[in-house]
Amino acid sequence: MTKQKYGLNTICTHIGEIKDEQFKGAVSPMYLSTSYQFDNVDIKRYPRYFNTPNQEFLSKKIATLEHTEAALIFGSGMAAISHMFLAFLQKGDHIVVQNTLYGGTSNFIREEFPKYGIEFTFTDGYSVADFEKAIQSNTKVIHLESPSNPLLTITDIKGVSALAKDHGIISTIDNTFASPINQNPIDLGVDVVMHSATKYLGGHSDILAGAVASSQLHIDRIWNVSKNLGGSLSDMTVWMLERSMKTLALRVKAQTKNAKKLATFLNQHDAVAKVYYPGLKDHPEHALAKAQMHDFGAMMSFELKDGIDAMAFQNQLQLIKSSMSLAGVESTMLLPAKTSHALLSQEERDAVGISDRLIRFSVGIETFRDLKNDIEQAITKTKATSIA
Ligand SMILES: *Cc1c(COP(=O)(O)O)cnc(C)c1O
Question: What is the CATH number of domain 8-245?
Fold first, then answer.
């Protein structure tokens, strides 16, 4: 385990820097070579082998932030997820997958695994007992997501990873929503952590990337598959990601602070029917979230009361963008039923509680008062047009 001797902001700023020996520049040089002279036969550097200087150094920052030994950086979050799964699963194996999770992960499993002869079970719920019930003799991986997209359910990470260990099963988690600033699943017993780096790690809605972090042993196993599948990230984008991550802790903490205040504001608002945010005392897993997260994060969902149209409300927003993706410095909202979870059937959405009125809110770094005023004016205008 990597000893965390520096504070979070120092790790974000300095770990994984490449020293510019030649010119003493302040930032890491960008190495775009796809070809490197052999001076050490043990290291054959090639971008698809995940070992160019920029890839290698940035993975140190990610591994350090996730309190583990090693990491790989991918071309997207889905590349990270698919390569991670395919490293631990083969024909005849079985995976247990949490029922409430990112739509793309669920599509990947449902659409691709039958072609590989990999069996899967989506849990009925997200309690430890729900995971236990789904385990079979050929189960090799248990995959969880907490907080989950878009309902912010909280899974008992310690409980599920202990269950997996008892059965000799690899546990994997999608830690995108919390980011390493708000949650470190390796410390709770999970084997492999993945991120869509498109979200908080990138943070500015201009990078598509993914990452997987774990022990060197597991990362070697994933590397063996990943070098064949070819999902590495270009070094130009790796460099941008390193720059973005210097402010990761600053951004996420500012976003989380805003989110806590906005969740309280929405929860007390008479036009709001329900708020899903683990930081609220009435969230069903509030105590669990408090115990296993460093802070509650900057993602939430909410429903407006009957008669206030969610789509009309979004169209009235002036500052908060109604758009796909999340975790950027700018606040965004979307309707999961129409976007991220549109490929699920109505029954599947109903089963996990994603109503057509559910609005997912990714809170940015803007001034709290401005976000609050934007929501307030949009509600007022939507109410006025509904009555008219
Ligand atoms: C966006 C997202 C992904 C997929 O990442 P991409 O970078 O879009 O491939 C996976 N999991 C979660 C929770 C996400 O929000």
Answer: 3.40.640.10
Q: What residues does each domain of the chain span?
A: 8-245, 248-387
Average pLDDT over residues 183-210: 98
Cis peptide leading into residue 147 (ω within 30°):
yes
Distance 174 CA to ligand 1 centre (A): 9
Reported pTM: 0.95
Going by C-alpha positions, the residue among 243, 183, 239 that lies closest to residue 213 is 183
pLDDT at 66 over 70: yes
Write out pLDDT tens, residues 235-272.
Answer: 999 999 999 999 999 999 999 999 999 999 999 999 99
Sign for the CA dihedral angle at 182, 156, 100, 107 comes to positive
- What CATH architecture is 248-387? Alpha-Beta Complex (3.90)
Distance 214 CA to ligand 1 centre (A): 18
Which of 48, 158, 246, 381 is catalytic? The answer is 48
